Amino acid sequence: MLSRLKAIPWMTVGIALLAILLMLRLGFWQLSRAEQKQLRAQQLEQRAANNPLSLQDINRQPGNVADFPVQVSGHLDIGKVFLWDNRVLKGQVGYEVLVPMTTNAGEVLINFGWIKAPPLRTQLPEIDLPTALLTLQGVVVMPGDNLVSREVSESGWPRRVQQPSPEQLAKQLGRDLLPYIVQLNDSQAYGFTNNWHPLVMPAEKHLAYAVQWFGLALACFIITLIALHKQRKKHGNSRAS
Q: Which helix H or strand E contains 86, and what residues bound it?
């Protein structure tokens, strides 16, 4: 029995077990993400079925207000345009154009959509927006925090920003903003392209990744067993000779 235990490559077994545990953990994480995406897809479907709400209605909603359709009326501050940097559409780098709108319910950022970046970094795209009273329809978006991104301080307008945080952009404006963004539905009417993807990866994709991780864990387990069996058999033959 002792000789059999000595024949087992314990370091290799330990590494294999750690790899299996890691792959299982990744598989269960993908299952968790799939469940989250399914719930988000249900929320999108349910809220998209509603008639557009006013900003006053949105502000009275309890909890997370993301994905509600909304209608806003007000005037744009076209002198204070933010350019959300490094936004890619069909392989092309550009900006998403964020403009403050003054409404009866407060000032809110409107995401008009994507515009292609000029060839040189020193150049900024030309933005032409109306100054008259506008009534727009869109979707409420709650921007996520990007812990990797570092905000670069710029002067002048339009102004590039690395992430669309209403809290941070309010500081640059020097006035309050509502804590969400309205993603415009009809971006094309103003010369932009809607680049909003509420679900970057669907639940089915996460389920497929989970199956792959579990399959790799099973394959690693079987290969480890086969390797141990061959090692023991080889050790037995060497002792017999």
A: strand 82-89
Distance CA 62, CA 50 (A): 16
CA atoms within 13 A on the CB side of 198: 22
Residues 94 and 89: their CA atoms lie apart, in Å, by 7
Report DSSP state, residue 187. G
- Chain-centroid distance of CA 109 in Å reads 19
Q: What is the pTM of this model?
A: 0.74
Per-residue pLDDT tens for 116-133?
Answer: 999 998 899 999 999 999
What is the average pLDDT across 146-175? 79
Contacts of residue 149, defined as CB under 8 A and 6 or more positions apart, other chains included, come to 162, 163
pLDDT single digits (tens) 36-79: 888 888 777 777 777 899 999 999 988 888 889 999 999 999 99
Q: Provide the H-helix boundaries in 49-154.
A: 55-60
How far apart are alpha carbons 201 and 33 in whole angstroms? 10
